[in-house]
Amino acid sequence: MPPCFLPASIASQVGQLPPASSRPLPVINLGRLSKDPATRALAIQDIARACREQGCFEVVNHGVSKSVMKGVLEAASEFFETSPEYKELFASTDIRRPIRYDTSSRDGISKARSFLKHYANPLEDWVQYWPMQLPTYRKKMGNYAVELQRVSMQLMDAILQGLGLEPLYLQEKLESGVQFLALNNYPQFSHHGDKVGLAAHSDYGFLTILLQSSPGLEVMPHDENTWTAVPVVPS
């Protein structure tokens, strides 16, 4: 990543980052959670092991249709293609706002990323704040938010059972908990070797689910000091 896209404290460390790892992340077949008790138990063991040893994993057979995933990526692209004036209607540095647009332009950092973040659960409480100018944005994003909530509950249930807790432990609180959708947009660069992205960071919250539109995601598992590239896995 060119130093102009990083804070000075991080830019000085470029070239000193840990090496990349060739070890792939675990791939969890979520369809196994809906099978017979023995198959479900094995799937929960796999999830628990992945959380304990690496802290992250990929999922397949999650039940979210390709049309819903395509729709949410289309909605995100449509928003970022709107005029600067329209996007500025949602601009704010207040992280408590129900919807917020911003760029990585503060503190002397070039605009290497723009993003839109908004709450999504319960959907009926938050959809009113979402962009209205785009005719299908609310429908496409809402369809994805509903499916994501279902997958989140499925994963959290398995994670908690993997910890030895009862299946219904915290169910009510988790179902009514905050769901936050974050759309990230990165510019394309034509210069050979240029890369754009976020500096090393840890996400906050109980669970983060990522949908990639193109390769580029890297994670650092708990059990090693190397970056692992996460390919886009057809599901």
UniProtKB/TrEMBL annotation:
Superkingdom of the organism of origin: Eukaryota
Keywords: Iron, Metal-binding, Oxidoreductase
Gene3D superfamilies linked: B-lactam Antibiotic, Isopenicillin N Synthase, Chain
Record bears the keyword Iron-sulfur: no
GO molecular function, one term: dioxygenase activity
Entry-linked InterPro entries: DIOX_N, IPNS-like_FE2OG_OXY, IPNS-like_sf, Plant_2OG-oxidoreductases
Location of the Isopenicillin N synthase-like Fe(2+) 2OG dioxygenase domain: 180-234
Signal peptide start and end residues: none
Domain Non-haem dioxygenase N-terminal residue range list: 25-132
Pfam family membership, one: DIOX_N
Name recorded for this polypeptide: Hyoscyamine 6-dioxygenase-like
Organism this protein belongs to: Panicum miliaceum (Proso millet)
